[in-house]
Each structure stands twice: as C-alpha cells, then as structure tokens.
Amino acid sequence: MLSSPFLVTLTLFLSLPLLLLLSPHILFSPPDADDLALFRRAAAPHTTSHLSSTPKIAFLFLTNSNLTFSPLWETFFSSSHTHLFNIYIHAHPPIQPPGGPFPRSRFIPSKPTSRASPSLIAAARRLIAAALLHDPLNLYFALLSQHCIPLHSLPFTHNYLFKNPTFPHRSFIEILSHDPNLEARYFARPPMLPEVPFSSFRVGSQFFILTRRHARIVVRDRRLWNKFRLPCLTPEPCYPEEHYFPTLLSMEDPNGSTGFTLTRVNWTGSWDGHPHTYTAPEISPELIHRLRHSNSSYVYLFARKFAPECLQPLMEIAPDVIFRD
Asked: How far apart are the C-alpha atoms of 73 and 70, rounded to whole Å?
C-alpha cells in the first residue's frame, strides 16, 4: 500500500497545473506598491478642464537611450506653441542632461524595461498616469519611442486631433483580430482564461494615441493587467506590449477606437520582430510625403524607425518639408 506522505506529494504534483491556471497571482509577486499608488491617484475622479481652455496633447516618450532626435523634436515643440502640449519622458537608465532634452519636459520615475516583457506595459502606464495627474487639459496621450519622428508641424498635429470633423473624439490604436499569428501569440502566454477568451484577444502596434477617457481605463485596470504582467511561456511570438492595450480597449470600449495607428511603420524586410530601420541615404522629401499618406481615411502624424545617422538629413529638410504642411 502507498504511504500517506507519498499520496500527499502525488496529489500536490497533479494539482500544480490547476493551481497555475486558477491562481497565477499566488505564484508571482504583486505589482510594485509605488506603481499601484500612482495608478490609484491617476484613476481617481479629477476636476474636468474648462471648455474655454485650449486642450493639450501629452507626448509620452518611452526610451532606453538618449533621445537622438531631440533637436528635431525641439523644433517641433516651438516655444510659440507651449499652450498646446506637455512632454513626459520615461528613460532607463535615467537620462536627464541639464535643461532636459526638450523645453518643459518632465521626467517620471523610471524602472528597467526590456523588449517582449510586461515591463514595457508598466512603463507606458506610468507615463499615462503621470500625464493624467499633471494637467487636466491633457486630452490626447501620444506614446512614442526614441526612434520616432514627427511628419507634420505641431499646429497641424493638434488641429488634426481636435478639429478634424471626419471623426469623433476617439483613440488611435491599431486593433487586429485576424492577425495570422494571433493564435500562436495567445497560447505563448500563460493561461488567459477566464478573463480573456481567445475570441477577445487582440494585437496591434506598440505606439498609439489615446483619449483621456481611455487613458483612465488603462490606469484603472487591474483585472487584465494581472494576466498580462505574467511572464510569457515562450519568448516567440509573445510581445505583451502589442497585446495588452488593444485587448483591453477592445473589451472595454469596442467602438471607442478607430482601430488605426497614426504612427507609420514599415514592416517590409523586417527581422526578429523589428521593422525596417531607415538610414541616412533614404531620407528625402519624397520619403516624408510617402510616409504621411495611408490607404485609409487617416493620415500618419509620426513615423518610425530611424537610425541616429538620419538626424542631420532630417534637420536639413525639416523647415521646408516636415514642418511645412
């Protein structure tokens, strides 16, 4: 007859998969307390801005290196348009030269980030929370990387978002339900049920522009975040930063987003999950005009991914091409 200790050990071993399925939060450390406190403050009701005030765009830079294109962005953030924007930077390691890379930029407390990990989601949520708390006039939240460039002037960008009569006040985030790798991406994650059935799982671009209403949904969320913050079962093709935001907003407000991103990315010749990186010889007025246009009713406001060597040729064409709408 089998001994009682043996039966106990065998029972625990056989029940481990069920434990993983039903209670993953028991086996993983909870989110950082300071993050939770930040998100709670940002999700709390705040005084709404006066209708007579000019709404602003919160530019959220998610970077892991120096902002190579800061001279181009400094021109974009002209001192005559400071009433139209705020700038927030999450950099690791912390990068804050004297005066900051942009005028009036705000550095938020940063933590290490790595590709294809929940750390990028957490960093984006910190940026969004900081912008929500800082200024009630922030009504759009544009997440960008150090490899992004503007394709238009700031006044054009602001007018396009706030005064375009062709669409209501909606978020611009890519939301795909028919991606060819959707099933592989879903099952590369820890068990998503019951919170996220496969029919609700979405993928999309890592970079987006959210309305203030959707920004508050992001920082208020706990249920889906507790699923997406778990480590992937396999590194490929699991990219949590491309899964969490499209899935959350599709489930919470399916009609509140355009399903389209305003950041142009060239996936031709992509490798190891990275898009095409433009080099200096490719920079031309024709490239900028081509990057602006899409096959939909929307235009692109930003583009990625550009090598550092592109800065000088971009600065040369900026006055007469990029910032001349």
From this structure: 5
- Residue 205 included in any domain: yes
Which residues form the domain of 94?
A: 32-41+52-322
d(CA 251, CA 257): 11
Q: pLDDT tens across 163-176, in order?
A: 987 777 899 999 99
Q: Peptide bond preceding 305: is omega within 30 degrees of 0, i.e. cis?
A: yes
Per-residue pLDDT for 5 more than 80?
no
Q: Tell me the CATH number at 249.
A: 3.90.550
Q: Looking at residue 100, what is its pLDDT? A: 57
Q: Is 135 exposed, middle or buried (0-12, 13-18, 19+ CB in 10 A)?
A: middle
Q: Look at the chain and report how many structural domains it folds into.
A: 1
Maximal C-alpha separation, the chain: 87
Q: What one-character-per-residue DSSP string does 213-228 give? A: HHHHHHHH--TTHHHH
How far, in Å, CA of 324 to CA of 15, rounded? Answer: 64
* Rounded-to-integer distance, Cα 131 and Cα 134, Å: 5
pLDDT in tens, 141-151: 999 999 999 99
Model confidence pLDDT, tens digit, residues 80-92? 899 999 999 998 6
